[in-house]
From TrEMBL, chain A:
Keywords, alphabetical: ATP-binding, Nucleotide-binding
Protein name, per record: ATP-binding cassette domain-containing protein
Organism encoding this protein: Neobacillus thermocopriae
GO MF assignments: ATP binding; ATP hydrolysis activity; transmembrane transporter activity
Keyword ATP-binding: yes
TrEMBL record, chain B:
Keywords: Membrane, Transmembrane, Transmembrane helix
Bilayer-spanning residue ranges: 12-32, 278-303, 323-344, 370-392
Organism: Neobacillus thermocopriae
Top-level division of the source organism's lineage: Bacteria
Official protein name in the record: Peptide ABC transporter permease
Amino acid sequence: MNSIIKLEIQKKTFKKKGFSILNDFKLEVEPGERLCIIGESGVGKTSLLNIIGLLDTQYQGSYKLFGSSVKDLSRNKLAEWRNQKIGFVLQESALINSLTIEDNIKLPLMYANIEKDLTVQDHFKRIVNKIGIEPILKKKPLDCSGGQRSRAAFARAVIMNPQIILSDEPTASLDLENKEKIINLLFDMNKEFNTTVITVTHDLDVANRHERIITLERNE
Amino acid sequence: MKILHFFITRIFLKRWTLVLGMIILLFLANYLSFTAARSIISTFQGYQEIETLNQEGTFIANLDPNSEADFDRIEIDDTKKVYEYLNKNYTYAMQVDGFVTSLYNKYKMEVSFNYINEEAYKINQFRLSQGNHLNFNYKFNKEEIPVLVGAGLATTYPVGSYIEITDPVTQQLVNLKVQGVLEKNTHRSNFYAPNSKNYFNFSIFLPINEEFIQSAGLDLLVNGLMDMVLLDSTKEKATNLSELIQENLGLKFNFFNQQENFNYFEDSYFDSLKIICIITFILLLIIVCLAIWNTLVSIRLMIKDFTINLLVGLSYSKLRAIFYSYFGILFSINLVILFVITAFNRYGFWLKKDSIFATYGMFGLISMDWIALLIVLFIDLIIGFTIVELTIKKIKSIPISVGVLK
């Protein structure tokens, strides 16, 4: 099968801090794969997620996403792919507090200019029902519980039906019940739409539920 | 447009104190540039008008500011002696205004009489919108006096109409015939303060000849000496006149020649213009720095919001367009406020019946106001460009990272 992600990093250097990470790091990911990245703090887990998620292009190496070289893509194209092909599942705090939950979820639709599309509206309703956040749609994030905010952040990540979901510590600071809900939602998406899921976590219980686990180690 | 609306209503205005602070800072920058630009334009216009007097053989009378003038001691006969001497030996330009009278007009403005002799009339080269130029060879007290009226009086006193009035300087009943109408906003700059102007929209220009001067009262004769211009003269002749005036009237007059006038303007006005420009520039710099600081504080407070937007599809080019549009809106708000204040100030002269400052203009603004607004617009473009590019540079220097959201 063709790899959806083909990444070869020689190194990622932080000039100001004077060190480099991800030295001679290689990664290939198949479509629909569930991959987990673990490792101690500071080894470059989030940096790797930034690179895979097209947020960071400042590294030595090559990266092919969906068969295209990322370095050849314009900034606008990168933004478009972040909007349409990649969903970021982040911690509960990754919501704009001045917006309602509904507006937060619909944010990617605005950038894709499809928020008025009827099929999109149906899709929105389906996602909201499935995630169980209908009662809080008109609330502001600060008026919701941590679990509700996490589910809202998840809804925003999947509203565009992305091909890849990148999740960074999606269950941090959640109780057992909410943690379970988020992981189930993530894997339901994977099963239902063959979405590739890449998760960064410290939680070994969460990690063990993925097909493949990569452990990042500190460079000597 | 939708994204811009979203950013303004849902992100920027959520921290409205920062937006208000920015509007106030930008307004200060605009107001400062506007007043400085208008003052410079006005001074430059006045300077150009006065430049025509900077000719060989031209001397402008000026009452010495250090002399102790006692106007109560001045006798009409002594003044007439001075004018007899002047008429016999000199060519001079004389223009006296400020004689206010209550003459009915549509706008209920005070009407000011402006007495002008033929030489002063030639120098001023007034332009008319209707009628003919003045003639100076009428017989005072025997014929009607041809006059020009300001644009504001043209409907009440059109060309060919007559005005019967007691002349303020001769105290005689005179019959004035309107011979022409001055163009709108005809004005004269003060010789010694070129940025200060009197507008003649509600003035009556009355031609004066030797006969009129003989009949005139003390007010006109003494005031006529104040800004009198000697033409085709010499320093020696000017000194003689100065001595004669001192002897008869007890007033010490200086007569500045071309070079002295030029030096005077150089010292007083170019230096003051330089000071205005330097102070304005320094203040502008401080205000722009404060505005940049305000923006960077906003960015720091909103970085999480920006990062989330960048994660879900916002690009830097869209963000740059959003910032340019946002600052475009802020500058437009300020320009509208500035326009309204200026128009209201101009309209205020009409409300206060302040006829020497009442002007005509598109939406109440005269040409120098529009030029100053254009200069402000240009300065706004520079300020806007500086702030937006620095802001984008700052945002780009913060790596978009999911780490920012932890």
